[in-house]
Amino acid sequence: MLLILVDAAVWMFVSQPVHGAGRTRSAGIRLPSLMASDQAWRAGHVAARSAMAPFLGAAAVIAALSVPLQLAPVLYVISVGLSLASTVLALGVGSARAARAARRVARHPAIEMLE
Fold first, then answer.
1. What are phi and psi of 95, to 5 degrees?
2. Separation between Cα atoms, residue 72 and residue 28, nearest integer Å
3. Angle at the Cα of 55 (from 76 to 102), degrees rounded to 5?
4. Which residue, 9, 10, 40, 98, shows the most beta carbons closer than 10 Å to its own?
5. What is the pTM assigned to this prediction?
6. What is the DSSP string of 12-69?
7. Using one digit for the tens of pLDDT, what is the confidence trace for 71-110?
8. Which residues contact 58 (CB under 8 A, 6 or more apart)?
9. 112: how many CB neighbours lie within 10 A of its CB?
10. Considering the chain, what percentage of its residues have pLDDT values greater than 90?
11. Residue 30 carries which DSSP code?
12. How far apart are alpha carbons 63 and 90 in whole angstroms?
């Protein structure tokens, strides 16, 4: 169940800037391209959120399905590994998309990324 909490925390930290939270050094995706401006910060998080959703959803579902698999240790370890891999993939894909969106805003400041 801890994996589900981790996925929820990642989703929360990526979602806060989408809903208006300003740049911060303690939460969110803190890549240099996102920290360049408020517009880059928001655009990057909007892009990351949409890219991360399927991976974090899959990670949470796999983590929930792993609970009854504790009776079969090999299947349990495989399911936990798949859940962790999906979470790491979400972070990687989300960060790449965020950086790309933030750089696009830096090149074209008039672009407003909408949710």
1. -65, -40
2. 37
3. 145
4. 98
5. 0.79
6. HHHHHHHTT----SSSS---HHHHT-HHHHHHHHHHHHHHHHHHHHHHHHHHHHHTGG
7. 999 999 999 999 999 999 999 999 999 999 999 887 766 5
8. 86
9. 9
10. 46
11. -
12. 15
